[in-house]
Amino acid sequence: MKKIILTGGGTAGHVTPNLALVPALRELGYEIRYIGSYNGIEKELIEKAGIPYDGISSGKLRRYFSLKNFSDPFRILKGLAQAKKILKREKPDVIFSKGGFVAVPVVLAAKQRHIPVIIHESDMTPGLANRLCISSARNVCCNFPETLNYLPADKAVLTGSPIRRELLNGSVLSGLKFTGLSSEKPVILVIGGSLGSVKVNTAVRNILPALLEKYQVIHLCGRGNLDKSLKSLKGYVQYEYISAQLKDLFAMSDMIISRAGANSICEILALRKPNLLIPLSAAASRGDQILNARSFQKQGFSEVLEEENLTDESLKEMIEKVFTHKYDYINAMNRSKTSDAITIITRLIEDAANS
């Protein structure tokens, strides 16, 4: 049996694409293991999926002063030694890395043991962890055509992001039953997220009286962000977080308002949902969401409202624009060549494992 080790961690975005690949890898007959940090979010998610997990020491390379800058190099070296030991024991045929600093020692150890590595970069420009890994990789997968300009031509492959199959199989009827909404008005799904969700949540709630005249609203507002005063408002339902029913909420939605994290917008693309992206400002991030959103806008998949321009009036105007031209966005998404990332990536994995 062929064996693959998946790695990546630090945020859910470094884990969920790996989990999306698991069913296809199992169908291809792979034994799957995972290497992550001792107590990162990846440990909980991977163990819940029943995948054997090895934790290693990990550090972070910062561009700013921190006392941890003096200790983290030793954590990285320790992680490298641990990764070498695990790879020697497990003898995988191939490594797939989704990024994050815990993946760096795994990729470097794989290079030393001559194990082929495929890495995936979600954002427009490669983050520092992936930049450290590119020279050790056989292929570098990416989500955006513009990212190809930042990668070695002989390694870069435009794949899109692996999407969990279950998200594509939602039920409108189940969604209506779960939310208590009706089929008489279009539904807007607002994904406020967690970090940086306050501005989006506030803007949406400010215009609810106008929105609810024409639409219904499902609001995923993030933990601790429920507004109890809106609990009985007809046509509006709010949740901190949704897991099992998310596929049904996607299925019943006519439009999505979302931040512009790479994995989130790739899910929207796969679902062919007209959407309005409100990227995190450059002041609150390294600017990757702005670049992601602009790429989707350029390709005709999305409209973009940057946070600096977010007002009650601009939000209402952009929502109307998306609904007015919704079939233009759907047609553009239908022409996308990155909608079957799992097939493309598993083919690269197969080629690497059999090389």
From TrEMBL:
UniProt-recorded Gene Ontology molecular function terms: undecaprenyldiphospho-muramoylpentapeptide beta-N-acetylglucosaminyltransferase activity
Catalytic activity line of the entry: di-trans,octa-cis-undecaprenyl diphospho-N-acetyl-alpha-D-muramoyl-L-alanyl-D-glutamyl-meso-2,6-diaminopimeloyl-D-alanyl-D-alanine + UDP-N-acetyl-alpha-D-glucosamine = di-trans,octa-cis-undecaprenyl diphospho-[N-acetyl-alpha-D-glucosaminyl-(1->4)]-N-acetyl-alpha-D-muramoyl-L-alanyl-D-glutamyl-meso-2,6-diaminopimeloyl-D-alanyl-D-alanine + UDP + H(+)
Keyword Cell cycle among UniProt keywords: yes
One GO CC annotation: plasma membrane
Entry similarity comment: Belongs to the glycosyltransferase 28 family. MurG subfamily.
Classification via HAMAP family: MurG (MF_00033)
Biological role: Cell wall formation. Catalyzes the transfer of a GlcNAc subunit on undecaprenyl-pyrophosphoryl-MurNAc-pentapeptide (lipid intermediate I) to form undecaprenyl-pyrophosphoryl-MurNAc-(pentapeptide)GlcNAc (lipid intermediate II).
Protein name per Swiss-Prot or TrEMBL: UDP-N-acetylglucosamine--N-acetylmuramyl-(pentapeptide) pyrophosphoryl-undecaprenol N-acetylglucosamine transferase
Native source organism of the sequence: Candidatus Eubacterium avistercoris
Gene name of the encoded protein: murG
